[in-house]
Write a structure and sequence with these properties.
This protein is an all-alpha fold and 121 residues long. The protein contains 5 helices and no strands.
Length: 121
């Protein structure tokens, strides 16, 4: 399977690795699988996990998500007045509080939400 690009320092995974990880989480974690969890919202949690899997395995959708994460990283670097070619091991990124990875997750979430709002209009 094709390996994923390592955008925003997220782990690279190929489709088979992702699918295997998904199966482990879905089938072996009692908190998620509705057959193994009596919680009333277990089916909802499981459905959310299945939707995430299908989105991440869809090549076109994954490319869109990767582009949005890259956009979030660019925005964040600009906010910190750092060059766009700044690497993840740069001391300026490593010294940020909150940590750069945490800021990137928050900015990525913001970009994804904004995109979803635009899509729904």
């Amino acid at each position: 399977m094709k390996s994923r690009n390592n955008i925003a320092n997220f782990p690279c995974v190929c489709d088979s690795d992702f699918s295997s990880d998904y199966v482990l989480k879905a089938n072996h974690v009692p908190v998620i699988h509705p057959d193994k969890c009596p919680h009333e919202r277990a089916p909802e949690a499981f459905d959310t996990l299945k939707k995430a899997e299908s989105e991440l395995l869809d090549e076109k959708r994954r490319e869109e998500l990767d582009a949005m994460i890259k956009q979030a990283r660019t925005m964040l670097l600009k906010e910190h007045s750092l060059p766009l070619n700044t690497t993840d091991d740069d001391p300026k990124l490593q010294s940020l509080i909150p940590p750069f990875k945490q800021q990137l997750r928050a900015k990525s979430k913001e970009v994804l939400i904004d995109e979803e709002v635009r899509r729904r209009k």
